[in-house]
């Protein structure tokens, strides 16, 4: 619930950074209510105004996200708001007033429209999606492809189950559809679970967390809290000892392990001893095939 409220608190800023429609919606609602042009469609505009306010305020936004089974990100609750009809109605009424008035009124109307456009730009943060470094992205992809090519060349191509850092896992299936993954992108991108109630076992989730820890700190984390459900005791958290983590990976039929390049030497040495194999280095990663 805490994470849900945090996402709702930061959601408005993130949402408005990706477009100008929310500001246009607020402007249209303000124009309709102040001009008392909602009388013929009072119920519709009352609903639009109430739901818009609920989507903006963090507490009510969190409740709406909870209503949508927690699988949705913040932006999806805005599907409850009739944004397009309200904006279209507001602009139509505004232009109708401007076209039917005097020359001075038309000039003032278009001046107001320009002021509104400028306000929309400043009210909504950035000018769209964040700009990414295409060259850096291409280099990262090339490095992942090189690692995956080495995996395919040295491993049994008919039986490769990969456990690797997130960036490697993201490219694996596009590189070779025969590579199996111990977990997929829906592990870290919860929106992909929107229409599914299936969840990973705790031991699989711990494999992901331990790999994230290797990427961040070079070593494994302390054990996570065990489940409070007695019937789920077999899914208790994997201990932090390297041998226990590697054993859990083998239990998940992992046949290829890729470790980050900044993994601590002791962890790497114990991994080689456990799997009785030598790790070979590709780019900034260590690859082991038991």
Can you walk through the features of this model?
- The protein has 290 residues and is mainly alpha-helical.
- It is 55% helix and 6% strand.
- It has 11 helices and 5 strands; from the N terminus they run H-H-H-H-H-H-H-E-H-E-H-H-E-H-E-E.
- The protein has a 5-stranded mixed β-sheet with strand order 2-1-3-5-4, with helices on both faces.
- Strand 1 (161-163), helix 8 (166-175) and strand 2 form a beta-alpha-beta unit.
- Helix 3 crosses helix 4 and helix 7 crosses helix 8 (166-175).
- The longest helix is centred in the middle third of the chain and has 21 residues, at 103-123.
- The chain is elongated.
- Mean pLDDT is 79; it is low at 225-236.
Strand content: 5-15%
The succession of helices and strands, N to C, reads HHHHHHHEHEHHEHEE
| Strand line-up of the largest beta sheet | 2-1-3-5-4
Tell me the helix content. Answer: 55-70%
* Termini separation: 41 Å
Overall spatial form: elongated
Number of E strands? 5
Please, what is the average pLDDT? 79
CA-atom Rg in angstroms? 27 Å
Oligomer designation: single chain
**Low-pLDDT sequence parts:** 225-236
């Amino acid at each position: 619930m805490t994470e849900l409220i945090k996402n709702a608190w930061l959601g408005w800023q993130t949402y408005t950074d990706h477009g100008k429609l929310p500001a246009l919606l607020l402007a249209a609602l303000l124009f309709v209510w102040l001009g008392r042009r909602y009388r013929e469609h009072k119920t519709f505009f009352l609903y639009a105004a109430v739901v818009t306010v609920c989507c903006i305020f963090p507490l009510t936004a969190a409740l709406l996200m909870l209503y949508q089974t927690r699988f949705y990100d913040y932006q999806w609750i805005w599907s409850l708001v009739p944004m397009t009809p309200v904006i279209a109605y507001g602009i139509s009424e505004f232009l109708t007033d401007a076209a039917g008035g005097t020359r001075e009124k038309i000039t003032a109307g278009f001046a107001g429209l320009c002021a509104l456009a400028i306000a929309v730009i400043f009210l909504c943060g950035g000018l769209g999606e964040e700009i990414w470094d295409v060259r850096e992205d291409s280099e990262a992809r090339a490095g992942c492809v090189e690692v995956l090519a080495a995996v395919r060349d040295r491993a049994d191509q008919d039986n490769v189950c990969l456990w690797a850092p997130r960036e490697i896992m993201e490219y694996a299936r596009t590189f070779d559809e025969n590579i199996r993954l111990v977990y997929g992108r829906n592990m870290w991108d919860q929106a992909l679970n929107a229409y599914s109630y299936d969840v990973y076992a705790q031991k699989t989730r711990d494999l992901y967390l331990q790999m994230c820890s290797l990427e961040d700190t070079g070593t494994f984390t302390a054990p996570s809290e065990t489940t409070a459900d007695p019937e789920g005791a077999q899914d208790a958290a994997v201990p932090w000892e390297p041998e226990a983590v590697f054993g859990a990976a083998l239990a998940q039929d992992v046949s290829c392990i890729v470790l980050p390049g900044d993994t601590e030497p002791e962890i790497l040495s114990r991994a080689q001893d456990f799997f009785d194999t030598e790790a070979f280095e590709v780019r900034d990663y260590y690859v082991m095939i038991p």
